[in-house]
Design brief:
homodimer, alpha/beta, 6-stranded parallel beta sheet, 6-stranded mixed beta sheet, 12 strands, DNA-binding
Chain lengths: 337, 337
DNA sequence: TCTCTCAGCGCAATCGATTGCGCTACCTGC
DNA sequence: GCAGGTAGCGCAATCGATTGCGCTGAGAGA
């Protein structure tokens, strides 16, 4: 863009060799140079407005100081907090973040992965959690660093940071049971995601333990539309059956709201609904949504921490970190009629 | 990360010079090489799994194929669609996007700007719209390329892509007036933003034209909390005065919801409220929010288009693009009592 | 006074790709 | 058969910073 000041410019102005300037400006190597010289060079560098060229440095050091973040869709409200969590950890440490959206398309995911590789990212944070992501496991042997966040993938040799899904579902069920509900429905997310599997299993297990009637419907996506159509289908088959719905996430729960409303059913008077995620503005919905809060910002921070550990050469293996969740009771759950 | 295949590796395998491989693999220079050789080299490159090193290329070509996006806060729901719009235009053209959040802190914005410069970004898309951003105008003479999006800054020599704020406010007022409202309140965003200024002026102008009673309160931020406290203050001073509130954006409108609810006032029965932005889930609020829809995704696309034009050497000057808005009528507005 | 040591700094290779320049064939036209 | 032209490709510089190695000179020790 503008005619930039280079190391060589500073060196010339200071009457020294570029190598000396490089060493003077770097914390690590600063002690290899006379203190007096360091001060002089630093002053001249500042006067000339020298800024290092990260690209050139990256070429030589084989580090781009960049992390690639692969996620399904940034407009899904759980991802912005994750990204900001990642940012908050990485930026102060000199790293930048390259975010890409896959829209759930595995072939696009592969393509984006490759393009991030071309950009020499130092590591990946992957939030798509597709089983297809397992193909990325192949790269593990090539020394590629990655961390999964939000969703885990079975058998993948990378660390993962997830929320305590099982506990979240248990809290939801116990809450609903304490309100007198007996007949439960779970809208499960699509197969192939760890979140879907774990939440479904927790639903079944906890309902059995408490002696509750349990039914599960699989949705086609974690979206409002999928939630609505799944609930529509359920209500067609079993009108006025379940009084408690545990949704796979908040978007599905919102779909349930829509379905109920269109049929003249009231939430929570007729049907209680619990979401999962505690997305932004869940408190402003109609009715305010009872949901399981998952600490997305912190998950981002942890994922960033793990990827940097790997980059710094610490072998952590497929470590799994599970962050605690909590139930946020609002207006979408009430005592069973 | 892994032992990567370089241009030299391909050259050796093909028995030619690296320069020839480079020319063969590049669309532009391909015709400088014998078709037969090109085919052979391409095949070998694929077999070896060669992927170009974007960093090395960037050093030589002085282009990083990266655009820096500076915004206040990714968790503000208007920004994800903008970012996705930018992405959708840039990615297919080989560019990547580096997103940073300023949290409204001008000194942080300056620091992030510099760090993006160090990373040799080819251009900036700036969504913060602070008047302080004007300091970036200094760089204009140094050949820095930038586009403003969402908010413009007066007198800045860069192009800008914004929504038609004035028309949006007019539509809101006409809608409310047609419902019989006479006394209007506008919660204006903080001073210093083009959006605040334009929307306030449009509010005043249109109220005057229609002979409506108009009052404006400035908020301290475009946030739910700021909206709530501003509305609280207003209601303390003028209980039961205005029946129509035009909020500076949806978050402020949500703050108005909260304020009304805590005082036992009903929306829309007692007070009608209109937001601005039509953020995600505005339809799921309590009540569903009447608001002005602004095409954020498209704004991102346009901003991306303009920055690429500049990079490709097209002098567009401080061109201003204004995208049309529309009023989405939902449940937060009703006939005046 | 002479050697030895080491702090301080210069030299030049290196990272991987791009590109202006020029060389070598071969081909054409006369 | 020769000058002129051109296609195809190699050579080497270049982008800007980093870094192993080695040189120089000053200070220390004998």
């Amino acid at each position: 863009m503008r005619e930039r000041v280079t190391l060589a410019d500073v060196a010339k102005a200071a009457g020294v060799h570029p190598g000396t300037v490089s060493r003077s400006l770097n914390e690590e190597t600063e002690k290899q140079v006379n203190q007096e010289t360091v001060r002089k060079i630093r002053k001249i560098a500042k006067k000339l407005g020298y800024t290092p060229n990260t690209v050139a440095r990256g070429l030589r050091t084989r580090k781009s100081m960049t992390i690639g973040v692969i996620l399904p869709d940034l407009t899904n409200p759980i991802f912005p907090p994750i990204v900001r969590g990642i940012d908050s950890y990485l930026l102060p440490r000199g790293y930048s973040v390259l975010v890409v959206n896959t829209d759930g398309d595995p072939s696009l995911e592969k393509k984006l992965f490759d393009s991030l590789m071309e950009r020499q990212v130092d590591g990946f944070i992957i939030a798509t959690g597709r089983s297809d992501t397992a193909s990325i496991a192949e790269y593990h042997d090539h020394g590629i660093k990655a961390v999964l966040v939000n969703r885990d993938v079975a058998g993948i040799p990378f660390p993962a940071v997830t929320a305590d899904d099982a506990t979240g579902i248990r809290l939801a069920i116990e809450h609903l049971a304490s309100l007198g509900h007996k007949k439960f429905l779970h809208l499960s997310g699509p197969a192939g995601f760890s979140t879907s599997r774990i939440r479904s299993k927790a639903f079944t297990d906890n309902c059995k333990k408490l002696g509750l009637h349990a039914r599960i419907i699989k949705t086609t996506a974690y979206s409002v539309e999928a939630g609505q159509s799944a609930m529509d289908k359920y209500l067609d088959l079993h009108p006025q059956d379940a009084t408690a719905v545990v949704a796979g996430n908040d978007l599905l729960a919102l779909g349930v709201y829509h379905s109920l409303r269109l049929r003249g059913l009231r939430c929570p008077e007729d049907v209680s609904v619990v979401g999962f995620n505690n997305m932004s503005f869940a408190n402003d919905f109609q009715p305010p949504m009872t949901t399981v809060h998952a600490p997305y910002f912190e998950m981002g921070v942890e994922a960033a921490r793990l990827i940097l550990s790997q980059i710094e050469g610490i072998e952590i293996g497929p470590m799994k970190i599970t962050l605690p969740v909590s139930l946020v009771v609002r207006g979408s759950t009430a005592r069973s009629a």
